Amino acid sequence: MTSRSRHLWSIPIDRRLAIVTGASRGIGREVAKRLASDGHHVFAIARSADNLETLVQEVVDAGHSAEFRTCDISEGHALGELVEEIAETSGRLDILVNNAGITRDGLLLRMSDEDFDAVIGMNLRAVFGACRAAARPMMKSRFGRIINVGSVSGISGNAGQANYSAAKAGLIGLTKSIAKELGAKGVTANVVAPGFIKTDMTESLLSTIESEMTKRIAMRRLGEPADIAAAVSYLASEGASYLTGQVLVVDGGLAI
Ligand code: NAP
Q1: What is the mean pLDDT of residues 107-135?
Q2: Is residue 255 assigned to a domain?
Q3: Looking at ligand 1, which residue's alpha carbon is closest to its atom 33?
C-alpha cells in the first residue's frame, strides 16, 4: 500500500469522521469539501498528494477540518487496508464515501480481459474491501453511513461500457446486501447514481456531444459535482437515518 499523509488539524471529538475516495478532482473533491463544511472531519484519498494538499488547505482555510492519505486503489487490497488503518488510529469511522472510479470504454467485441478486470477491480472489488473494513467500527459505534457512487449506466447499461456498467450494477447489489446486513446496527448503505456530470471523466465525451446530451436531460443542463455532493451530504446526515438500500439517481431527469 502506498500511503503518504499530511495532518493539518487534530480530529475534534464532536466531529463525525468521513472518508472520501477519489477526492483529488471532480465529484469526490466537491463531496470532500461539502462534508467538511457540514462539520465532519474528512480523510481525502487519491493517488497523488498534489491536488489533495490544495484541497486540505482550502478546507482548513474555510475553518473546517480535513487531512489526506494517498493510495492507489487499483492495488488489490490497498483501500481496505487504508480504511482499516484510519479507523484503528482514529478510534472510529462514521461515513465512507466510495467515489473513486475509472472507465476503460470499448465495444464488447474489442474489450480486453485487462480492461474488464481493471474496471471491476477499481469500481467494485475495492469498494467491497472498503465496506468490509468500515463495517466493524461502524457496527461497534452503532452509527454508520456507507455511500457508494454508482452511475445511471449501472441501472440502464450503456453501449461501450459493458465493464463499467457491470461494475456499477454490482455496486447496487453489494450496497443493498450491506444495507440488509448492517441495518440493525444503525448503519445505512446507499448508492448515489449520477447522470452526466462535468468532470475530467466526461470531458472528451461532452466536448463533442454536449448539446445533444443536454436535450435528453429534463433540467436542460449537465450536472455539476456540487449536485452530487448535495445528495451525498443528505445521505450522510442524521435526517437520512431511516433511508437505506436505496439508489438515489441524480441526473437532472435524464433517465425518466
Ligand atoms: P474523475 O474526475 O475522473 O476523478 C476520479 C477520481 O478517482 C480522482 O480523484 C482520481 O484521483 C481517483 N482515482 C482514479 N484512479 C485511482 C486509483 N487507482 N487510486 C486512487 N484514486 C484513483 O471522475 P468523476 O467524474 O469525478 O467520477 C467520480 C465517480 O462518479 C466515479 O465513481 C464515476 O464512475 C462516477 N460517475 C461519474 C459520472 C460523470 O458524469 N462524471 C457519471 C456517473 C458516475 P487521482 O487520479 O488523483 O488518483
Answers
A1: 98
A2: no
A3: 101
